[in-house]
Design goal:
It is an enzyme of class 2 (transferase). Keywords: Glycosyltransferase, Transferase. The chain is an alpha/beta fold. Helices cover 50% and strands 13% of the residues. The chain has a seven-stranded parallel beta sheet with strand order 3-2-1-4-5-8-9, with helices on both faces. It has a six-stranded parallel beta sheet with strand order 12-11-10-13-14-15, with helices on both faces. Helix 2 runs parallel beside helix 3 (60-75) and helix 7 packs parallel to helix 10 (238-252). It is globular and about 80 Å long.
Length: 514
C-alpha cells in the first residue's frame, strides 16, 4: 500500500550524517492518536525550522495524516523526512489500516493496537541505533524510549500532552490525595499547593486516580520516564501558564520548555492549515467558507468536541436544541454519517441539518473539519469545546472565548485554567469524567448549554471583558513565537543545550581515544 510523495528515509544516507558537527540529528516518535500525533509532528517540524535534521518514525496510515506538511517543509528547504514502518496487523489480529486510536476504536481493538506497538518496540530501537541521532523526541506514551536513549548515550525529550496547570494539579492530587478526604463524589475539595485556589469533585477526576487500574501503572511509568529524561516539551507559552510552568518544574525537579503555540508557529501557510490532521486535502469542500463569508464579524459559534468525542442521542438532541434556541449562527462539527453506534443520533442530526440549512442559521460538518482555517475566520465569535489541549491552544491563538465542556483525559483541569485562572471560559456544567471511548451517564441539559452560549455571545460587560482577555492572550501568543518571544527563546536555548551536549560527548570520545 503506497503513499503518494512519501519521503522514506534512506538509512545509509542518514548514517553518513553531516560533516558539520554543529548540525543536530533528531528522531521523533509520535503516538498513534491524532490528538497526540499532530502536536508532536508540529514540534518535530519546529526543530527542522531551526536547522535540526529530523526523521519522524511512524506507521503507514499515521504517516498519511501529516505527510503533505512534511513534503511542503522539504520543499521549503527544511531537513525533515518520514520513515515508515508497517504495523503488524496479522500478528495481533487486526484488519489492515487499523493502527491508531479514535472514538470508534472498539475496546478489543485497543488492546491489540497496544500489542502491535509493543511488537514494534524492538524494531524502533534498532532504527534508533542505525540512524545515530543526537537526541530522541518521543511522546509520553513511549516511556521505554528513555532507556533506549540512555543506551545510546543521548538525551531523550518527552512530549507531555496538555498544559502545565493540568499536570501540576494531577501531581498535587497524587501526592496529597485530597479526594479521599471528602464524603461523596460531588463534594468539592481544594487542590493543595497550587498558585490559585482551585476546587474539584471526585466525579471530575480520572477513574485511574480514584482507584488503581492498569492505566494507573502506565501513568506512573510515564512520570518515572519523564523524571529520567533530559527534559519535557509542552505546547503552551509562558504568558498563558507561567506560574504553573514554574510550579511544575519545581514539583517534578526536571527541565521543561514551553514552545507553543506550535500549531501557529509551523502552520502559517494556508495549505498547511487547510489539511492539518487530515491527509485527504479538500475532503470537505469549501461550502463552510462560503457560508461563513456570508456572516458578520464575531456572529458565529463554532462547536467541536475533538476527534475522540462520543455522545449518545439524548445529548445530541440537547446540544441541537440549545444551538437553535440561542438564535446565534453556528458551525457544528459532528461525527461522520454511519460512524455512530447510536443510529438514532445520526437520523436526528440529518433532519436537524436540513432544518438549519433551510433557515441559514447553522452549518454541520460531518467528520474532519479544517479547524485552523475556521477559527481564524472573522465571523467566528466563540467556541464550544471539550477542553482538548489542541483546540484550547488554537482558540487562544485566534483570540476566542470558550464554553467549556470537559469529557475525559485531563480536560476537567483544563476547564479550571480557562474558567477560573484565565477567565476566558464559561462552564456548561459538565460534572462527570468518563473514558474517551464511552458515552458516560451524564446528559447536560439545553438550558445549561444555552446559558453558557448567552454569556459567550452576549453584549454585556462580562462578555466584552472575556473577549478582551481572549484578544490579549492572542496577542501574547503571537509575540511568544517571534524573535525575542518566550517560546522562541526557549526553543533557541534548548537547541543550544543539545548542541553543547553533543560537543561534550564528541570531546569525551576523542579524549578517550587518545
Amino acid at each position: 500500500m503506497g503513499i503518494p510523495n512519501l519521503r522514506i528515509s534512506n538509512i545509509n544516507m542518514v548514517m553518513m550524517g553531516s560533516s558539520n558537527d554543529d548540525k543536530l540529528k533528531a528522531i521523533c516518535l509520535p503516538f498513534v492518536s491524532t490528538s497526540h500525533l499532530i502536536p508532536v509532528v508540529d514540534i518535530a517540524r519546529l526543530f527542522a525550522m531551526h536547522g535540526v535534521d529530523v526523521t519522524i518514525i511512524t506507521t503507514t496510515a499515521n504517516a498519511t495524516i501529516f505527510q503533505s506538511s512534511i513534503d511542503r517543509d522539504c520543499a521549503r528547504g527544511h531537513s525533515i523526512r518520514t520513515h515508515v514502518v508497517k504495523f503488524p496487523f496479522a500478528q495481533v489480529g487486526l484488519p489492515e489500516g487499523v493502527e491508531s486510536f479514535n472514538s470508534n476504536t472498539p475496546q478489543d481493538m485497543v488492546s491489540k493496537i497496544y500489542q502491535g506497538l509493543s511488537i514494534l518496540q524492538e524494531h524502533y530501537q534498532q532504527l534508533f541505533h542505525d540512524m545515530h541521532p543526537d537526541f530522541l523526541f518521543t511522546d509520553m506514551f513511549y516511556p521505554w524510549t528513555v532507556d533506549a536513549a540512555a543506551q545510546l548515550g543521548i538525551p531523550r525529550l518527552i512530549y507531555v500532552g496538555g498544559g502545565y496547570l493540568a499536570h501540576s494539579a494531577q501531581n498535587s492530587i497524587e501526592q496529597f490525595s485530597p479526594h479521599t478526604k471528602v464524603d461523596s463524589d460531588t463534594e468539592s475539595f481544594l487542590i493543595p499547593g497550587l498558585p490559585h485556589e482551585l476546587e474539584m469533585t471526585r466525579s471530575q477526576l480520572p477513574d485511574w486516580l480514584r482507584a488503581p487500574t492498569g492505566y494507573t501503572y502506565l501513568m506512573k511509568m510515564m512520570k518515572d520516564s519523564e523524571r529520567k529524561s533530559y527534559g519535557s516539551l509542552f505546547n503552551t507559552f509562558y504568558e498563558l501558564e507561567g506560574a504553573y510552568e514554574e510550579h511544575y518544574k519545581k514539583a517534578m525537579e526536571t527541565k521543561s520548555w514551553s514552545v507553543g503555540p506550535v500549531s501557529f508557529w509551523v502552520n502559517q501557510d494556508a495549505s498547511d492549515k487547510a489539511d492539518r490532521g487530515n491527509g485527504k486535502e479538500g475532503q470537505q469542500g469549501e461550502g463552510w467558507l462560503t457560508w461563513l463569508d456570508s456572516k458578520t464579524e464575531n456572529s458565529v459559534l463554532y462547536v467541536s468536541f475533538g476527534s475522540m468525542n462520543k455522545f449518545p442521542s439524548p445529548q445530541l438532541v440537547e446540544i441541537a436544541h440549545a444551538l437553535e434556541d440561542s438564535r446565534h449562527d453556528f458551525i457544528w462539527v459532528v461525527r461522520k454519517k454511519g460512524e455512530s453506534e447510536d443510529g438514532d443520533g445520526n437520523d436526528f442530526l440529518q433532519e436537524f441539518e436540513k432544518r438549519v440549512r433551510a433557515s441559514n442559521k447553522g452549518y454541520l460538518i460531518w467528520g474532519w473539519a479544517p479547524q485552523l482555517l475556521i477559527l481564524e475566520h472573522l465571523a467566528i465569535g466563540a467556541v464550544v469545546t471539550h477542553c482538548g489541549w489542541n483546540t484550547i491552544m488554537e482558540s487562544v491563538n485566534a483570540g476566542l472565548p470558550m464554553a467549556t465542556w470537559p469529557l475525559f483525559a485531563e480536560q476537567f483541569y483544563n476547564e479550571k485554567l480557562l474558567a477560573e485562572v484565565l477567565r476566558i471560559g464559561v462552564p456548561v456544567g459538565a460534572k462527570e469524567w468518563r473514558n474517551w471511548n464511552e458515552f458516560g451517564n451524564e446528559v447536560v441539559k439545553r438550558d445549561e448549554i444555552g446559558k453558557a452560549i448567552a454569556v459567550l455571545m452576549g453584549s454585556g460587560e462580562e462578555s466584552l471583558e472575556m473577549r478582551r482577555r481572549a484578544k490579549a492572550l492572542s496577542d501574547a501568543a503571537k509575540k511568544a513565537i517571534q524573535v525575542g518571544g518566550s517560546s522562541h527563546n526557549n526553543m533557541k536555548d534548548l537547541i543550544q543545550e543539545l548542541k553543547s551536549f553533543k560537543h561534550q560527548k564528541i570531546s569525551h570520545k576523542n579524549e578517550s581515544n587518545t
